[in-house]
Amino acid sequence: MKKLSALIVVSLFSLNIYMHGSVNSFKSGQDRSIEFPDTENYLTITSDLHTHSVFSDGHVWPNIRVAEAMKDKLDAIAITEHLEYQPHIRYIPNKNRNIAFLEAKKAAEETDLIVIAGSEITREMPPGHLNAVFIKDANTLFNIDESLLPEARRRMSEAVNIEDLSDEELEVADQYALGNLYSPFEALEEAKRQGAFIFWNHPMWGSQANDGVSRLTEMHKQMIAKDLIHGIEVVNTEEYSEEALQIALDNNLAIIGTSDVHELIEWDYDSSKNEHRPVTLILSEKRNQNSIKEALLDRRTIVFYKNKLIGKEENLVPLLDSILGFKSLGYRGDTSILRVEISNNSSSDMTLKNLSAYNFSRSDDYIFIPKNETKTIMVKTLEVIKAIKLKFEVLNAITAPKKHAVVEATIEI
Ligand SMILES: [Zn+2]
Ligand SMILES: [Zn+2]
Known about the structure:
413 residues; Immunoglobulin-like; four-stranded antiparallel beta sheet
C-alpha cells in the first residue's frame, strides 16, 4: 500500500513536470518558422518583445506564449504585462508583477528560448504606453497609493461616468487611475536603474492618436533627452507607421516591431496565407541576454513585418547581403545569355527591381523570389564576359519612409 501511494505521488509529480515541459509538444500544424541568416559580423536574433497573458489583459497562460514562440522558432520573447491595467484582478490578484515572467521562464526551462523580463508601463497620452525589457523587478516600476483615490476618481470622472461602472469594473478602473497618478518619469528612471531597454509602444494607436499619426510630444522629447526612451514601435500588430520610422531615424531610436498579442498568435497570423507575426531582428554578438540588450541599446535592429524588412541602411544592407545569394550558372548554349541564380535564404519573400544596365530575357525588371527559394534569371550580356555586376533595389526592404535598400553583386562567370 505504501509503495502504491509512493508511485501515485511520483506519477503525479512527473505529470506536473510534463505539463510545464509541454511547450515542445505543440508541434502539429503548418510550418510557421521565422528564420533569417546571420550577417557577416553578427548573429540575427528573432524576437517578440511585446506580448500579454492573463496576468494583465491577455487571455492565455504564459506557457502558451512560450509554445507559440517555439513554433515560430523565435530566439527570444518578453511577456510585458500592463502594470497598472489589471482587468482580471478580482480572479487573479497578481500581487507579484513578476509572475508572468517567472511562469514563462519555467515553461521555457527545457528549451533554448530566451525569456526576457519586461513590463508595460501604462499611461494616458502623453506618454502613452512604454515597454521596459531586461528589468530586474517589475514590482518597483509602479506605485498604487490608495490615499490618492479621491484625485484618481476625479480624473476618471472626466472620461467616464463612474455611476455606470459595475463593482468589478470600478475596481479595475480605480487601480488604473491610481497607477496613472505615479510619475512616468519616476517609473522610467527606476527601469533605467535596473538596466532596462525602454521603447515607446504603438505611437500610431488610434485610441491615443486619433488620426493614426505618430508624433513626439514635449514629454517624449524630454524622455529621449534623459535617455529614458531607447526605441519606438514602428510596427505594432497590424500597423506600420512611417512617421514613427522617421522619428526613429531623427532621434536615433531603435526600430522595433512587435505582435502585442493578447489572444493566440495562430488566430492573428495565418501561416497558410503566408502571414507571420511582426518581429524585431536583433544583430547581436552572442546569443545571450547581455549581448542582446547591448545590441538593442546600440540600435542594431530590423523589423520583419508582412514580408517587409524595415531598418536603418547600416543594419539592413548587411542582412540583405546574407539573405540574397547570386551565382552564375554559365551561358545558355552558345548564346550571350547568362543564367544567374538568385537565392533567398530567409523566411521573407523578396521583391527585386533591376537597376543594372542589363536587360533580362525571360522576365521584366521585377524579380519575385518566394521565401527559402531560388530563381534563375536570364541576363543579356550582349557579349561573353568573365564577370558581371548586378544591382537591385529591394522593394520589400525599407530604410526610410518611401526609400528602399539597394544591393549590388559582382558575379564571376
Ligand atoms: Zn499598449
Ligand atoms: Zn501591450
